[in-house]
Amino acid sequence: MNTSDLLILCAAGMLVTGYLMVGQKALFTTIRLFGIQSLLLGVVAATIAVTESRHELFLTAGITVAMKAVLIPWFLMRIIDRIGINREIEPFLNVPVSLLVCLGLTVVGYRVSTGFPEGAQGVRHHLIGVALSMLLIGMFLMVTRKKAITQILALLTVENAVFLVAVGVTPGMPLVVELGVAFDVIVAVLVLGVLVQRLVARFESMDVSRLSQLKG
Amino acid sequence: MNLLLWALGVPLVTAAVGGLGGPRRFKEITMVGGLLTTFALCIAIAFEFLGGAIPSAFDEALRVDGLSALVLVLCGFVGLLSACYGVGYLRRNEERKLVTPRMRREFYGLIPAYVFAMLLVAMSNNLGILWIAVELTTLASVFLITFHDTGTSLEAGWKFLVLGSLGLAFALLGTVLLYAAGQGHLGEGMAALNWTRFIESASKLHPFTLRLGVVFALIGYGTKAGLAPMHTWKPDAYREAPSPAGVLMAVGMLNGALYCLLRIHLISAAALGPTFSGDLLLGLGLLSVLIATPFILIQWNLKRLLAYSSIEHVGIMAIGIGLGGEAGAFGALLHMTYHSLAKPVAFFSAGTLAQLHSSSNFDRIGSGTFSRAPVASGLLVLATLMVTGSPPFGLFFSEMIILRAGFSGPHPAVTAVFLAALVILFCGFAFQIGGLVLGPPRDPNDRRVPRPEQLDISMATALVAAVLAMVSAFYLPAWLLALVRAATRVVMGGA
């Protein structure tokens, strides 16, 4: 198997984890799926780092795996353990319909990806196509799910999609920016975690569809 | 040492000291003193710029041109006002035993931190640093929104953070795509993301990637600015945040987000011509003004009313930029300046009324506030006249400039709709505030007696802000006008 096959395999794997997250109701499994997705993103970055000898991408891969495949899943699982709610309730759309919508979103993502300069053929086309599809799937996940934790995971999926674009089509983000973004993401997840715990303490639920007092 | 680093360092140290604790008076003096120094440093930077220099640091990652200097001065100004008002605000709550140690830490720590992040936004020349700074403003303000730790404030904080983070993910994607559009022409390393570098190599950017990036970045930063239809977090957040934090969001963050929108718009204008992103801004701006109108007419809460007013004003600024031409840009930037002077008065008077009545809902405050709190009510009426753009105040002039630019430009129909919305907005706002302030005094047998008004540092700050806002309508200092003109030159593609 050559490296471009590996890249396409990993990118496809990321898309599959996105689909599985849409079909999944157990929160622990959803978090693990997100961890696998981040791990695959790390592999993509590392592979590109080797094949194009862009060594700064090793750092991207390292940060991604350490942060999004290990640290953040661990933190979210700890929150779930503490508050003792571990299943998603019935989403606004049922699973088969959701998966069909995601299929449509993937088509849209791939269609848009054809406009890129490198997009006509090859591996890059798949990377951008997968990234844009994941972006749309993440947003879809965000609007159809009710649990606060799932919304955080949806947000992180969108972030993963952005990083896939970054490693796929740019000559590598500058180091300072990369570190700054990583720091901001981790702080954002911590703050979201604190808010989830305060929400549960106040409403005895992390069902965000109950947050509907403020209108007009 | 570099002034820019001082202007960033002072609020950061103030935040660290305030967040750690210590006696109350010490923390109060630290916050006001720190933000006063910061404001002085911002003015010093502006004068350095007006003297002909381009202050910069870290290989031009931070760089102050006319636009940055204007936003810096306005942010520094509102930071100082917020600190002075905030000291009195917290004292009033202390008297009523409403303040926990957590609140003290968050208040004295997060307000200077918020100012720090806003100043970093205004100085950023590097699109990556710009994104990081905007994310920092979001993170600094979340716990200010959930400050009172009630059900509604948690709801507002959650919506703010989730929507804001999604918007910022879009903005990050936009930044990445802009970088990708460079296709290696931007060079290597940190400086490759510099805004100045983008402008220099505008003709070499790949058009499709650039368009996609501009759309994502404008939607992303537009969420932070509160442009419709991404404005839904704003009324909730403004209602729940304490007034000193609210004014930072309504003026400082609004200016900062507009700064981001302008930078992206300028890259797009240099590469694709002014109409692509200009029309997008024009559309979003008009939508914001139109959406704000009905919500102001049916509003039930004083602070939410101010939030819709702020959605209206950011819409007006976006329209001014979108109309294009020097007059439109000048009008928008003048509008930003006058709005930054007038909005604090509205927030401080409304905040005082809300605090006296322990609620910002119209039905809890009750009509006829003039007999109970004459100073705050008077200031609120004055602020209403100013923010609705009545003559002879500054926002009237800036709105006139934008309208004239609109009618003489290619979009007279859009401008006509915009003018109609402005008239309805004026009537709606005047109706709401008039009913609140001038209505019949409420039943004297009502058991929920409001607290009496007292002249403290908060009230003094509100009065000073009101005097400055009024004077500025007739006499705008020459250096401030020079900054507005310099910022206009930046928007028109000059140095």
How does this structure look, described?
The complex is a heterodimer of chains A (216) and B (495). Chain A is mainly α. Chain A contains 7 helices and no strands. Helix content of chain A is 77%, strand content 0%. The longest helix of chain A has 29 residues, at 175-203. Chain A has one domain. In chain A, helix 1 (3-23) packs antiparallel against helix 2, helix 2 (27-51) runs antiparallel to helix 3 (56-83) and helix 5 packs antiparallel against helix 6. The N and C termini of chain A lie far apart (58 Å). Chain A has helices spanning 3-23, 27-51, 56-83, 95-113, 122-144, 148-169, 175-203. Chain B is mainly alpha-helical and 495 residues long. Chain B has one domain (3-491). Chain B is 77% helix and 1% strand. Chain B is built from 19 helices and 2 strands. In chain B, strands 1-2 form a two-stranded antiparallel sheet. In chain B, helix 1 (3-20) runs antiparallel to helix 4, helix 8 (207-225) runs parallel beside helix 11 (275-297) and helix 10 (243-272) runs parallel beside helix 12 (302-323). The two termini of chain B are 25 Å apart. The chains are: A mainly alpha (216), B mainly alpha (495). At the A-B interface, helix 5, helix 6 and helix 7 of A face helix 5, helix 6, helix 8 and helix 9 of B.
